[in-house]
From TrEMBL:
The chain crosses the membrane at residues 6-25, 45-66, 72-94, 101-122. Keywords: Membrane, Transmembrane, Transmembrane helix. The keyword Lipid metabolism does not apply. This is DoxX family protein. Pfam families: DoxX_2. GO terms for cellular component: membrane. It comes from the Bacteria. InterPro entries: DoxX.
Length: 123
């Protein structure tokens, strides 16, 4: 189970560090140019907060089990990332952006799998 967790968590952490990091450092206008068409329609603080949550979730997936300190935080981080994806799915459906739903659903399923594997391994 641990190996499966590390594979899923590693994929998620890379995806969320990249996506969240971009949201934190780039202005919404630049994000829209790179494909995140929703970003300019939200306040900058909202976009930055989403990015920060994604980065913190990615760190939580890896850091807690890596250090062995408060390992229950890893599956909780995965649940938090699942909630972020549920919000993303709702937003994209409301905006009629169905192309991005496949990525969102895959990330949601990976986050749920990481939570389940994390709870089974460390909680």
């Amino acid at each position: 189970m641990q190996i499966a967790y590390w594979i899923v968590a590693g994929i998620l952490a890379l995806a969320y560090l990249a996506a969240g990091g971009l949201k934190v450092v780039r202005p919404p206008r630049k994000l829209a140019e790179s494909g995140l068409t929703w970003a300019p329609d939200f306040p900058t603080w909202t976009v930055k907060t989403i990015g920060l949550l994604e980065v913190l979730g990615a760190i939580g997936l890896i850091l807690a089990p890596l250090t062995g300190i408060a390992t229950v935080l890893a599956p909780l981080a995965a649940l938090g990332l699942a909630l972020v994806q549920i919000g993303a799915i709702i937003t994209h459906i409301a905006r009629g952006e169905v192309k991005t739903l496949v990525v969102n659903v895959v990330l949601l399923l990976l986050a749920v799998a990481a939570a389940w594997l994390g709870f089974a391994t460390w909680a």
